[in-house]
Amino acid sequence: MFGRTTISVRGIGHHTVDAVWRLGYASRFLGLTLGHSGACLRRFRLVIREIYYAGVLSLIIILVSGLFVGMVLGFQGYHTLQTYGSESALGILVALSLVRELGPVISALLFASRAGSAMTAEIGLMKATEQLSAMEMMAVDPIARVIAPRFWAGVISMPLLAAMFSAMGVFGGYLVGVVLIGVDEGSFWSQMQAAVDVREDVLNGIIKSFVFGIAVTWIALFEGYDAPPTAEGVSGATTRTVVTSSLVILGLDFLLTAFMFRGV
Amino acid sequence: MERATLDLWVGLFVMAGIGAVLVLALKVGNLSTFSVGDSYAIYAHFDNVGGLKPRAPIKSAGVVVGRVADIQFDNERFTARVGMTMDNRYRFPRDTTASILTSGLLGEQYIGLDGGGDSVMLKEGETLKLTQSAVVLEKMISQFLYNKAAEGGPSK
After folding, report:
1. Confidence band (pLDDT; 50, 70, 90) for A159?
2. Complex ipTM value
3. Alpha carbon distance A245, B58 (integer Å)
4. Rounded Cα distance, A201 and A95, in Å
5. Residue B70 in contact with residue B44, Cβ under 8 Å?
6. What's the distance, CA B2 to chain centroid?
7. A97's torsion region: left (phi>0), alpha (psi -120 to 50) or beta?
8. Which strands make up the sheet holding B109-114, listed edge to edge?
9. pLDDT at A220
10. What is the mean pLDDT of residues B103-112?
11. pLDDT band at residue A40 under the 50/70/90 scheme
C-alpha cells in the first residue's frame, strides 16, 4: 500500500519535472529561433517559400470555413434576433462575433491542423532521416535554415488568414441575412459599421491572431524538432501538435479576451 | 515549384490578406471617426448618467459630433463628471444643454446636445452648465404609480 503511494507520488513528480524541462527546452528553442531569424529575414526567399506552403495552401479550407461559419451565423442569429424584432442587428452580431472571436480562433485551429501538423511531420521526418544532422555536418545551422523561415512564415500568414476568414464570414452572413432572408441591406451594413470599432474590435482581433500564429508555429516546430526519430515518434508528435496547440489557442483566447474586453 | 509561380501565389496571398484587413476596417468597421488631433474637450456634470459608457456617441440633431471620453464621480458635488471629446468642426454656444438620451426603447445611451442662443462659443476644457440626467425607468414607473394612486385614492 505504502509502496503504491510512493510510486504514484513519484509519478507526479516525474511528470512535473518532465513538463518543466520540456517548457524550458521549448523556450530555449524559441529563443534560438528568434536569435537566428536575422539571417532568414535577409534571405527572405526562404520565408516566401514557406508562406506558400503554410499560408497559400491553407487558403481554401480557411475561406470555405469562413463562408460557412458566416452563413450559419446568419441563420442562427436571425432566428434568435427576430424573436425580439431586432433582425436589423444581424450585421452587428455576425461582424462582432467573427472579428472578435470566431475569425482568429477558428482560423488558428484550422491553421494548427492544416499547416502546423504538416510542419511537425516534415521536421520530424527530416530529423528521423538525419537530414538535420547532415546539415550540421555541412556547417549549416538547421535552426537558421529550416526552423526560422517556417516560424516567420507562420507568424506572417496567421493574421492574414484570420482577416480573410472574418471578411469571408461577414460576406457569408450578408448572403444569408440580406440575399436569402431579406434583412434590410442598409440597416445590416450601417448598424454593423456603427457597432464595430476599428481599434477595439478589428485591431484586437488581429493582435489575437498574431499571438495565435506565434503559439501555433512555435508548438508545431518544437514538436517536430523534439520528435523521437522513429515513425511512431513522428506520428505522436504530429498528434501532440494539434492537441497542444488547440488547447493553447483556447486558453490564450480566454486570457486575451479577458484583457481586451473586460467591459468598461 | 518554379520561383516565379511561387512568388505570384505568395504575392496574391499577401494582397488578399491586406485586402481583407482593409475590408474589415472600412466596410465592417468605421474608420471615418475623427482622430484625436482635431478635437477639443468639454465637460458636463450629470446627477445620474444611467447606462452611459465611454465611447458613446454625442449627437446634436441626430448627427454624431463627438464621443464620451471618460466618466468619473465628482466627490465634491456628488455628481458624475463626463468628459467629452468633440469634433473640431462643430462649435456650440456656451448655454448648450446636454441631456442623456436613449436610442430606441432598449438601445444604447448617448448624449444629446441642444445649442442655445449665446454668441460666445464653448472653448477647450469648459464645462456645460445646463444638463439633464438620464431617465431612470424605475423612478418614472414609481412616480406614475404614485400619481395614479393619488388620483384614484379619494374616490374609493
Report:
1. very high
2. 0.80
3. 44
4. 10
5. no
6. 55
7. alpha
8. B127-128, B39-46, B79-87, B63-74, B57-60, B109-114, B97-102, B130-132
9. 95
10. 77
11. confident
Q: Which three cell numbers stand for residue A52?
A: 506558400
The DSSP-derived string for chain B is: --HHHHHHHHHHHHHHHHHHHHHIIIIIS-TTSPPSTTEEEEEEEES--TT--TT-EEEETTEEEEEEEEEEEETTTTEEEEEEEEETT---BTT-EEEEEESTTTS-EEEEEE--S-SSBP-TT-EESEEEPPPPHHHHHHHHHHHHHHHHTTT-
- B33 interaction partners in chain A (CB closer than 8 Å): 198
Candidate from B6, B7, B25 with C-beta closest to A202: B25
- The verdict on a CB contact (< 8 Å) between A159 and B17 is yes
Domain residue ranges of chain B, discontinuous segments joined by +:
1-32, 39-142
Distance separating alpha carbons of residues A90 and A172, to the nearest angstrom: 12
Record the cell numbers describing residue A181, joined without a space. Answer: 432572408
B chain contacts of residue A99, beta-carbon cutoff 8 Å: 24, 28-29
Query: What cell numbers appear for B40 in the block?
Result: 477639443
Query: What is the distance between the alpha carbons of residues B90 and B8, in angstroms, rounded to a whole number?
Result: 48
**Chain B, nearest residue to A99 by Cα:** B24
Q: Is B115 exposed, middle or buried (0-12, 13-18, 19+ CB in 10 A)?
A: middle
Identify the burial level of A67 via C-beta atoms within 10 angstroms of its C-beta, where 0-12 means exposed, 13-18 middle and 19 or more buried.
middle
| Dist. CA B80–CA A128, nearest whole Å | 68
pLDDT in tens, A82-125: 888 788 888 889 999 999 999 999 999 999 999 999 999 999 99
